[in-house]
Amino acid sequence: NxxxxxxxxxxxxxxxxxxxxxxxxxxGHSHVYWYRQLPEEGLKFMVYLQKENIIDESGMPKERFSAxxxxxxxxILRIQQVVRGxxxxxxxxxxxxxxxEAFFGQGTRLTVV
Amino acid sequence: xxxxxxxxxMESNEEEPVHLPCNHSTISGTDYIHWYRQLPSQGPEYxxxxxxxxxxxxxxxxxxxxxxxxSTLILHRATLRDAAVYYCILRDVGTYKYIFGTxxxxxxxx
Lengths: 113, 110
Prior knowledge:
A: seven-stranded mixed beta sheet
């Protein structure tokens, strides 16, 4: 059973471009979470999704950021018109429907130049 | 969300036990205590979790105070590969959300 897969591992974007980060949860996991980690800081919750539904997006910036978890395919975190302050590591985690612990991917490191 | 307090950093000698403390004085009855660790340039890794009783697994032990206002993660024999940031997190079973603090950076000395 493969773990949580995130791609790409590293992503470089110029200011104003779009960034698309993908997360494939572990098999059998229908809950996905996205976190952002700035350099030398802890992880900050962004959004929690179940298949086709956003359950909690209280940590998402109001503009430019969106997330989805379609019925088929990976979860996508989309950042439009990226700015330098978006440079960070973005981690995805997944858990089963009634599971306790979540399992994290290796993250996508976004650099905005 | 209930808050946890951990020391910023700790050091340990290789092959010796390490006790990582966590205070959570505002814990509620339905909060589970979770521990994750994050090695450099990697995602957080699940270590252990518990509710009231002490817990053991192949990675570590979790000792929970009787009043549940504090807990201690115990690594029985630290290795260089255990150098990481350790996060103590309270998670209500109904929220599914982990709130990470700043964690404890563990340095293991050879």
